[in-house]
Design a protein that fits this description.
- The structure is a single chain.
- By secondary structure, the protein is α+β, with helices and mostly antiparallel strands.
- It is 29% helix and 24% strand.
- The radius of gyration is 19 Å and the shape is globular.
- It starts with 5 loop residues before the first strand and ends in a 13-residue tail after the last strand.
- The mean pLDDT is 96.
């Protein structure tokens, strides 16, 4: 928030904690790795969508879509190279006065990973962290078995099947990005919060994407990126990363898996 502040029409150079420097550096790395699909410099665009979503939820009868001209004007201020990081002095400056940071695609997973690392450093060898759509595990559970988690069904109208897969995790995380939780409705169509930097509109390729990978921060960013990639591109990326698997849920409910995802699944018995 302090980095985003503007004084006398420009952003100021802000001294931040080393953890913030690490997170922003990580975000730049993820921008490169995902071919720009995860861009924390998209704040000017995402703020517009956030405002329209808030207004639409507060007064559904007047809900409307953002004007594309406004989105395109905001998109001019999303160059990630305008985030100037000085690791030596632990400072950050946004060189573009109209730029805003939005770390929603990485901050939760990054924070979960930092908590997990802290617990490990204290000698804790068995735990599970569950932070709504983001689960991180270390070791085995109390019965000396892998921890278990369910993947929510993005079709919320299907009350008979609240979960579509169950997975076992040990020293691993699972992160899901989906269209079914944060959205508002315009003329009977739902518009969610995962915005494609190419179209400036919510992604429409999938209902959800789940990623299993050791690092929760990496999984958070990757699930967002895969949600916005074509299936072929996303699969190629996943198959190029060790110890990482994904499951895509298509709009018709079809589930598509990377080559090793089902090695983590099990059949749940009531």
């Amino acid at each position: 928030m302090t980095i985003n502040d503007v004084k006398d029409g420009v952003h100021q150079t802000v001294t931040v904690d080393a953890k913030i420097i690490d997170m922003l550096t990580f975000a730049k790395e993820m921008y490169a790795k995902t071919n720009g699909k995860v861009n924390i410099a998209m704040g000017s665009v995402l703020r517009i969508w956030h405002n329209y979503r808030t207004w639409g939820l507060d007064d559904p009868d007047t809900a409307e879509l953002p004007d594309m001209e406004k989105l395109e004007e905001a998109e001019k201020h999303t160059d990630i190279n305008d985030i100037i990081i000085d690791k030596k002095n632990s400072t950050v400056l946004l060189a573009d006065p109209e730029m805003l940071l939005d770390v929603g695609a990485i901050a939760k997973g990054y924070s979960v990973e930092k908590v997990a690392q802290h617990l490990e450093s204290k000698g804790i060898t068995s735990f599970i962290i569950n932070v709504g759509g983001n689960i991180r595990t270390i070791g085995l559970n109390g019965e000396n078995n892998p921890f278990r988690a369910g993947i929510e069904n993005p079709d919320k109208d299907n009350e008979e099947t609240p979960y579509i897969e169950f997975v076992e995790l040990s020293n691993n995380s699972i992160v899901t990005s989906g269209s079914y939780q944060r959205f508002y409705t315009v003329n009977g169509v739902n518009y969610h919060h995962i915005i494609d930097p190419e179209t400036l509109m919510p992604g429409t390729k999938y209902n959800s994407v789940s990623v299993i990978t050791p690092d929760s921060g990496f999984g958070d960013a990757l699930s967002t990126a895969l949600f916005l990639m074509d299936e072929e591109e996303g699969k190629a990326l996943i198959e190029s990363i060790e110890n990482t698997e994904a499951m895509w849920v298509l709009p018709d409910g079809t589930q598509v898996y990377s080559s090793g995802f089902e090695n983590h699944t099990f059949e749940y018995q009531n």
